[in-house]
Amino acid sequence: MPSIKANGIDIHYEDHGDKNAPPMLLIMGFGAQLTLWPIELVDALVERGFRVIRYDNRDIGLSHKFDGVKAPGIIKMTILNKFGITPKVPYTLADMADDGAGLLEALGIEQAHIVGASMGGMIAQHVAAKHADKAKSLTSIFSTTGNPKLPAAKKEAMKVLITRPASMEEDVLVEHGMKLSRTIGSPAYPAEEDRLRTRVRETVRRSVYPEGPTRHLSAIVADGDRRSMLKDVTVPTLVLHGEDDPLVPVEGGRDTAASIPGAHIKTYPGWGHDLPMELVESIANDIASHAKAHD
User: What number does CATH give the domain 3-293?
Assistant: First the structure.
């Protein structure tokens, strides 16, 4: 997999499809490697005529790690936020958006369709706001606005997300990943057991870095409410969200669409906080149709 210097750090990425096709940048979420974008979805977007680039965010996968840089604890950050105080964090979601924009620049790409999932959707929102000249369109997938009045994640979903594995042994890490996938996944589209286990094991063998998600979480919490930023977004926007998402409830998607002028939203019953095989073709159609309408 190639690596390139972007925004002052090394970013690992994959580049799929015809280099002359309209580029599409996929931004993954909290603590997740680029491989969480199913290759089946990547291939489906390539088949629909796009050059698809997926990459590891900073502090995860094979991209630059901020070793030794401490993030404030979640309890402290939550208390500070309640008093309107922005906590000091190692880096922000805006910094991570600069990474994505920097990657496009390093690859010589002037504009791309920006697609982000979960925290990646938050980062994509920053790209659309701060780097609008680089964004042909925005697709925000099971993400949210940071509005504190929105419904919270289900307790069991948040607990498994932020709980560290009991050890760094491969089998323990795989079981932890399986539990996470099952807890936040789609109730109507449960992943096939052997396929899920194989995918999780491949992810574990590719990279394990428990420190990164701690700093990712601090960036999310510190970012706060993005609605005032989103009202100035002019990039054509599509919001996709599952109606049964236990981690980012569907209200987050609806609030995102309501906050961005002219945005459209499509929700799916039975879809949780994952990208199930059964929905790959439909999601690819949604993303591609939106992008082609604004290419």
Answer: 3.40.50.1820
